[in-house]
Amino acid sequence: AGLYDIVTRRIPNWLTLCILLTAIVFRALEGFAALGSGLAAAMCGLALALALFKLGALGGGDGKLLIGVSAFLGLERLQGGLLTIGVLGGLLGVLEAARRGVILPAIYNAGNMLRRWFTLGKTGERRTLDSPGAIAVPYGVAISAGAILWWLWGGSVP
Hints:
Layout: H1 2-8, H2 13-29, H3 32-54, H4 60-100, H5 103-118, H6 139-153
């Protein structure tokens, strides 16, 4: 999914659906508790993806990928996986801003966006992926890499 996002700047529905279904099948093979954990994590991923999509901070394909990845991680690994994804996504954004030579405007815009979120829209500027000067990165790379890294080297599985 990450490579697909780099090449096309899209993550197709068929791919995210396959990821989600594969996660459910693998979790079901591990038993009812593992399946329940995967489904609950997928619902958490859905809630987070919808919130970030509504805020204009995440694309639709990225959100659907996050749901599938959450199902794979399960509740046991979800928190660390999301943190790893967020850190990698931030690094990706900083690298892209540096590549374009717009680090200071990107930091200013991010601060403005956070101010708006924390004040529930009372101050700050509403910025989305479509805003002028917004730096869009293939976030599917961060989601894919972060989930894999956390799965391989993150916390233990019960």
